Amino acid sequence: MDISSVLQGGYQHPLSRKWQAKRTLTKEMLMYPIFITDDPDAHVDIPSLPGQSRWGINKLEGFLAPLVKKGLKSVILFGVPLTCPKDGKGTPADDPEGPVILAIKLIRKLFPSVYIATDVCLCEYTSHGHCGILHDDGTINSVPSADRIAEVALSYAKAGAHCVAPSDMMDGRIKTIKRALIDNGLGNKVTLMSYSAKFASSLYGPFRDAAGSAPSFGDRKCYQLPPNAKGLARRAIQRDVGEGADIIMVKPAMPYLDIIADAAELAPDYPLAAYQVSGEYAMIVAGARAGVYDLKTMAFESTEGILRAGCTLILTYFTPQFLDWLDE
Ligand SMILES: [Zn+2]
């Protein structure tokens, strides 16, 4: 055999196989998505997201303490208002007594080491379930949408969030949020993580169950990106870098690894995040239950793909399990 034909000598040992990675999963790379609801005593399992629940703020300490002890470094909070009156501009999103703001303050106090990101969107709080403010004909009204998203982001930042992460996909919102943070003395205190390339995916179903955020009419295809859109995703990433994002995110992860690789090429000097979304998580769990593969092996393989594509941060519902698995 030719010398140039032999590769196996380089990865014959478990340790030399590890060295093949440019980047290996650590606990610092994991951000755990958490659903906070407005019933303070809630602990309600989400059937379509096995192992995940909606939590009331009175249950957060008991829920998070064991995870923090195992090395949980960061969370991203999603508000799930079930009882508040919703309206056209998502007024309850920044209610000072709302679940997200209360949770930010509580987690800061109970677990000062935990990095708190907050998802910023209006869809959980609007009567129509869309992510922005609408014209009478049901189309997006861009400028007031970005203004309102920035108002909500600013209120989370003022409550103590380390990072605000707009997922709404409204045009111009990154610039508007960055300006609001700077003008309020928070420009150097709060990270702006943009859901830059967020696709209109079928993989958000379990999340919508969890957050109660399905639109009451139409869909989100006029603001989330079409799944076939590579050029548009590249433009969105470059736009958000130009508008002042500190971290770029691609969502979902697994069907969009090429977009992650594009983001790594377009924004090489930025942390790059991927959201392994609810449907990806549910699919991996369902496959394991059906005997298709071993859950842990597949969970690692899925994140290895995301890291190989270029990510440095993964939002994943597997975080609690990885905290155990990474210690083994
Ligand atoms: Zn939304």
UniProtKB/TrEMBL annotation:
Single GO MF descriptor: porphobilinogen synthase activity
Gene from which the chain derives: HEM2
Enzyme class: lyase
Binding site for 5-aminolevulinate 1: R208, R220
SMART domains, per database record: ALAD
GO biological process terms held by the UniProt record: heme biosynthetic process
Catalytic activity: 2 5-aminolevulinate = porphobilinogen + 2 H2O + H(+)
Record bears the keyword Metal-binding: yes
Subunit structure: Homooctamer.
Cofactor: Zn(2+)
Family to which the UniProt record says this protein belongs: Belongs to the ALAD family.
Positions that bind Zn(2+): C121, C123, C131
This protein's name: Delta-aminolevulinic acid dehydratase
Matches recorded under InterPro entries: ALAD, ALAD_AS, Aldolase_TIM
Record pathway: Porphyrin-containing compound metabolism; protoporphyrin-IX biosynthesis; coproporphyrinogen-III from 5-aminolevulinate: step 1/4
Residues that coordinate or bind 5-aminolevulinate 2: S278, Y317
Top-level division of the source organism's lineage: Eukaryota
Keywords annotated in UniProt: Heme biosynthesis, Lyase, Metal-binding, Porphyrin biosynthesis, Zinc
Residues annotated as catalytic: K198 (schiff-base intermediate with substrate), K251 (schiff-base intermediate with substrate)
Organism: Cerrena zonata
Pfam families tied to this protein: ALAD (PF00490)
UniProt-listed Enzyme Commission number(s): 4.2.1.24
Keyword Ribonucleoprotein applies: no
Annotated GO CC locations: cytosol
Function: Catalyzes an early step in the biosynthesis of tetrapyrroles. Binds two molecules of 5-aminolevulinate per subunit, each at a distinct site, and catalyzes their condensation to form porphobilinogen.
